[in-house]
Design a protein that fits this description.
alpha/beta, about 15% strand, globular
């Protein structure tokens, strides 16, 4: 097998393979705390999704393309073992497509705060992208400068800090790691869902955890029927006092739920 197609960081010495797929404008490292909490029972792999982090850029956003690249990456790491795949938001949509298209590769699935449906209320990410693209990097001399420049687009300090993790030193200047131009251009595809292509696929029959934040708009009762049609063995858990970033707002609850999924009955 060749090198993984996407940038990954793996840990753990034994147990099932677990891949973590972050959301829009995130990085694999966003799942580091959770991965550390599971390293005693599994072998976690943090994945930088296409057009994010240290992974290659692409020419368009397509969930089937992303799932195929993710499949190549996981098989390059371990061509024999099936995986538990955990995906948040954009990464959750990719993980669902992967489970439906490559069921022999995915043993278990965790979908975090997203649904198999077009995503409504996506305007905050459009605002974030426009804010990041609008930062004059030539005028930035420190992270404090960038933080100030992003204040209007992302007033919440925690979210602003999350976005600024994508800013890297590049020689004497700065650069954004994600492919911001593509993400902004294809934002409709990121918020969308390939419903017609999905309809042609059989359901995934492995165990599925559907984790959502009680204060988030991204999962609603309207999504239940389609989620249960595609993933008949789904178990839904709504996390109190959590919004869209469930794993960062409630890491202990997230870790416990994933431990239960990973250590459940095999096969």
């Amino acid at each position: 097998m060749g090198e993984p197609a996407l940038h990954t960081v793996s840990s753990g010495e034994s147990g099932p393979r677990v891949a973590f797929c972050h959301g829009l404008l995130g990085q694999g490292r966003n799942w580091n705390q959770i991965a550390k909490g599971l390293a005693d029972i599994s072998r976690p792999t943090l994945v930088d999704m296409p057009d994010h982090g240290h992974s290659p850029w692409s020419e368009r956003i397509d969930y089937f393309d992303a799932a195929a690249v993710l499949a190549d990456t996981l098989r390059a790491i371990d061509p024999e073992e099936p995986w538990t795949v955990v995906g948040h938001s954009m990464g959750g949509k990719t993980a669902m497509v992967l489970a439906l298209t490559e069921p022999e590769l995915v043993e278990r699935l965790a979908v975090v705060d997203i649904s198999p449906a077009p995503t409504a209320s996506f305007t905050q990410f459009e605002t974030f992208l426009a804010g990041m693209r609008g930062v004059d990097l030539d005028a930035v001399s420190s992270r404090a400068d960038a933080d100030e420049a992003m204040r209007e687009a992302a007033p919440d300090p925690a979210i602003r800090g999350f976005l600024l993790q994508n800013l890297r030193r590049d020689g004497d200047g700065w650069r954004w790691l994600p492919n911001l131009a593509l993400l902004e251009r294809d934002i409709a595809a990121i918020g969308g869902w390939p419903e017609e292509r999905i309809a042609e696929l059989p359901p995934f029959d492995g165990p599925v955890l559907w984790l959502s934040g009680a204060n988030s708009p991204y999962v609603s009762q309207e999504n239940d029927a389609e989620m249960r049609r595609l993933f008949p063995r789904v178990r839904q858990v709504t996390v109190k006092e959590a919004g869209h970033w469930v794993h960062s707002e409630q890491p202990e609850v997230t870790t416990a739920a994933l431990r239960a999924l990973i250590t459940g009955e095999r096969g």
